[in-house]
Fold these 2 entries.
Entry 1:
Amino acid sequence: MTAMQLKKDYAGRDFISLLDYSAADLQYFLEVADYLKAEHKAGRPTPYLQGKTMGLIFEKSSTRTRVSFEAGIYYLGGQGLFLSSHDLQIGRGEPIKDTARVLSRFLNGLMIRTFSHDIVLELAQYANIPVINGLTDLLHPCQVLADLQTIREHKGKLAGLKMAFIGDGNNMAHSLMNGGARMGMQVAVACPEGYRPDAAVVAAAEAAAAESGGSVQVLADPLAAAAGADVIYTDVWASMGQEAEKAEREKVFGGVYQVNDELMAAANPGAMVLHCLPAHRGEEITEAVFEAHPEIFDEAENRLYAQMAVMALLLA
Ligand code: CP
Ligand code: NVA
């Protein structure tokens, strides 16, 4: 099989929010991700990053993002550099804008996992190489690109499917609303009062849904959100950086915002369950539901291929 000739249209762009891309763009990213997955599984090399370097800046912990980026860069023939903020001069106060300009002189691309979304925006503003958002307090677009790939693999389509997110109106809820709405899905989010998604993100997702024929609903009742859903999604009640709120959040979310058998009974028969991981069994999801849905690990696996597609296209 001849290697896929990738479009150059995305060369030099950043990957910060899914809404920076059209539905056709995301569709193409998913096609490239599927192609890279098939090639990798067939043992055929895909050297789209031959001779290229990616810096991977982490200000928060990670298992999946770190390992899938590092392995993915290697499989694409490039070299990844793990850059922990504990070791970088960022940790001692060097400004992001200086770090961006210096690293741009050494590298071909950057990924960053950080707290404030403004840090990614500033990094991208000052870097003259592509910047990929590996999670902020606001968004987690790489995860959702992998989620869309997984849903498409299992359900054969995206548009018209209903996806329910149960839990905190956090970075995952935001990116799922963005990606789902862009691709014509019906996205229903159930969150407790005070933990609803950001109003500006909801408005942007609603605008995307109006274009794509999808919809966005923000509800309080998890069973109402799950009703007739094809995909049930959840995430931790307390995200990284919210450790001090853990006890309070357990009180607010406990017993209600959980993916359990009762919630699954409200969803469509054969509904998928997805979780970005790490999962807290007995909190946002029961052990029984978690273990009954191995597609959660297909989802984790697809981080590798979705991100390989993003890097191959942006660093082309
Ligand atoms: N889902 C996800 O991003 O996992 P990590 O925090 O392990 O990278
Ligand atoms: N909402 C979680 C996602 C982890 C992948 C967090 O930000 O910690």
Note: The two ends are 21 Å apart (CA to CA).
Entry 2:
Amino acid sequence: MKKLALHWQILLGMALGVIFALLMTNFTWGADFIEDWIKPFGTIFINSLKLIAVPLILASLIKGVSDLKDISQLSKMGFRTIGIYIITTIIAVSIGLLMVNLVKPGSTITEETRTELVESYGGDADLTRQNAEKQKEAGPLQALVDIVPSNIVGAAGSNANMLQVIFFAIFFGIGLILIPEKQSEPVKKFFDGFNEVILKMIDIIMLTAPFGVFALLAALVVEAPSADLFIALGMYALCVIGGLLLMIVIYTLLVWVFTKKTPSFFINGISPAQLLAFSTSSSAATLPVTMERVEEHLGVGKEVSSFVLPIGATINMDGTSLYQAVAAVFIAQAFGMDLSFSVQLGIIATATLASIGSAAVPGAGMVMLVIVLAQAGIPEAGLALIFAIDRPLDMCRTTVNVTGDASVSMLIAKSVGKLRDKPLVKNWDDNYKKK
Ligand code: ASP
């Protein structure tokens, strides 16, 4: 029998996970069974992906930067990457604002539902606010200070410090370019081999992906709050999801126009990473797979992907910024506030910055949303309104975040002549089959 392609296996795993959990909720012991016996496998799966993140960034970025031959190539690519990232983020926020102003989902929330939501989720929202408080107290240059680690072992000790690891790897790579070739060659060869090993480990982890996502989704279903609240927030959710879908269309068109790669080629190549982003709600956990798909299936040169993608996973979050814009205006509408044009312009700026500052982990976008709310003078208690539905939206926005990074890597690769005509892997899930 012909083996099912990986993205279908993952989709099947997701669907079966949801169905299984729905069936289990009919039994009194069902939810506990999933918590105790199924969820741990999902956690193991996410952990194994996260485990790869730091070594992968180190190996691939050091190799990528040192392959660039000279510093001017690096700065050229660096400026382009950051420039395109910021432009796509601004487009995303603007789309979000447009959608939420047209649909006005906040006005459908009754006074009664609002009180109910604030009562049910007020406590959780407080916690999020406290986390955000720490961010707000920091000085204006704190973000810059945070990029430079004082100890690389300490920095590599937590996936939340990804930007610090990236800084070290780029710095190390620059050092490698500047020393004589005789000395740099063995170091480069080492990182080359190291990189290959990591990529092989990702292949192995991906073989278990269908089971991993089964466990993740089953656990999500039994932990989800009641359906009534979802319905009250339906219009808001539709606004976010509609905007996110539009972003995917925009990426595909950008890739099509600038690289001449068809939408089906792009989506086929990137879909396993999208499905993983959806199941894990974490761009950081998905990064290893995004890199592999982009390099081997979309034809992006390693020098480009190893530079553009780790940076993108940490700073380019178009889905998150779009969500923050919609959520902020939705909360304002629900509280009966009318936001002026200049306040909305301010939201474009703060949501862009807040998405850059959001960590690539589940729920981070919501923590940073507090900053957008504070800046625009919208009541922070409103966080409680959107809590119930945040996780599903997190899944969707993370998918867009990852798709955005992948598409920008293709644009950059094209612009610096590093986009291969043919992908390394002909059949797009060949490398997962037993060789
Ligand atoms: N979960 C998102 C990500 O990892 C961040 C967010 O919460 O919006 O990309």
Note: Residues 281-283, 317, 320, 358, 360-365, 394, 397-398, 401 surround aspartic acid (CB under 6 Å).
